[in-house]
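Give me structure tokens for this 209-residue protein.
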Amino acid sequence: MKLEKYIKEYSVPHPLLLDISSIMKTSEEPNRCSICDKTAAKCTCAGCKSYFCVKHFNEHRQQLSMKFDVDIKNVQEELLTQINQLDKPITPSAELLSQIDQWESETIENVHERAVKLRYQLTELVNQDRNQLINQYKILTNEINTLKEDDDFAEDDIERLRTTINQIQISLEQLITPSKTKFILVENNEIDWNHLINVEEKTKLCELM
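Here you go.
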């Protein structure tokens, strides 16, 4: 239906004309200042998206500058004062240092106890050969005395006893001049001292945005 016929029959504007006129009216409406409500608002704030006239836009910028000084610059200066206090190294808490001292003392004590046991063990091993040699000599002496008293020995007994005496003499020489390689210390190098005790950061600093 043509526009002229529609208007003539219904005596009202066509809806299309209403939409067009509404758009034209909206686009032609001037921006008003958010402060004084005047229509001469030619300035827009990129932050708050508000419209201002030149006068109130300048005032708005001054207010923003004051807010920046109060909220940012002043706080920054206070922060700088606190940062300057970090020139000296921070002393760890006495409680944590005490825990490390306690661990050190306990570790030293454990190492000392282990060293005492090792010395005792080494002494026992060294004297084990001594006691064995003395015992062998006593057995040999008893046998020699018995054979002599009973007059009950032959050539093979003399040969056997002589061999035993020679063996005891060899063992005695080894015992008097002990070899350094007879006993060795077996160290356990699997202990990772770097991970035996650690200091870990429980909370981290906030990351900057």
